[in-house]
Specification:
- This protein is mainly β.
- It folds into two domains: 29 residues; 144 residues, Immunoglobulin-like.
- It is 12% helix and 41% strand.
Length: 194
Amino acid sequence: MRRAAFLLGRLGRVMLATTAMSVAACGGGGGGGGVPTGPPPPGTSVVFTASGGGNVLLASGAGTQGATLVLEVRTAGVQDLYGVAFHLSYPVGSLHFTGAAEGSVLSTGGTVPTSFQIVASPPGNLVVGLTRLGKVSGTAAAGTLMTIQLTAAASGSGNLAFSSTLAGDSSGNAIPGLTWSGGAVQVTVVPGAR
């Protein structure tokens, strides 16, 4: 009888310890009945919508998130493309120009020397030039000519539009008949949530 009582007592302690460990492993059972946390508060966002296709076009690039819009100026493959020059307007009340980088199309991955210049003049208008240098042929490659970074300044919307466009070939002639497609942007700035 003593042995049975001892075993039952020991079994009870083991069961109690096992139950306590199970509750601890599950977080103590405190997950229910509280106030739901809900979705996180909205943050600042910049949403770009492309106008459509073209020989030279804008597209949202990698790195676009939150207050930062990274635009890719892409070519869909233009025969004997040696260089491009253009103006790109953007809604200066909503966006600020914060940087640019050359893509790999005209430099063929860095093997062909190029010149790349971009300046905001006046703010809200980028003046851009990218060209190969020297006695080399043009390219017909499709891909990214450059990336342009814009940062949210205030809530608003507007268009990103090309003007004064020029694409040249390796003989120094303008390439006729190209279409250039911009897009639209919607900026939502949430104070304190950059």
